[in-house]
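Write out the 3D structure for:
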Amino acid sequence: MDPEVGAAQMPPLPPKPPTEFEKVTLAQVQGENQRAQLKAETEAKSLEGKMRQALLDYELAIKEMELKYNTKIDELELKRRSMLEQTDLQKSGDLMGQIVRGQKQFFNDGQGNNNQGGQESSATAGRSPSKNSI
């Protein structure tokens, strides 16, 4: 039997057990990952709490204005307008980003194409007939 065929038919060797160093390193990495995940979750909870506090402050300010001026303020309309302004702002930011990308692309593509645009190079000046000769 051919040794290569025999080697191909052998079952794969079981993996080596991890060394003590690998075990310690893996435990350290897992601990760092868990700390980073907990930190991110804590930050998210903190931001959520700040957002809720800001929303409560907003609603309190609206109620104070309603009482002070003896009128009814349409909170939903204010929130809707705020959301529309936010999406408009995002769209304008996206548009600005597209403009900047287009400019970069234009100028990057234009770097290698300096001899285009109908200009005649000095190497081809004598080869072609002049525009006035026809």
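The chain has a mean pLDDT of 79.
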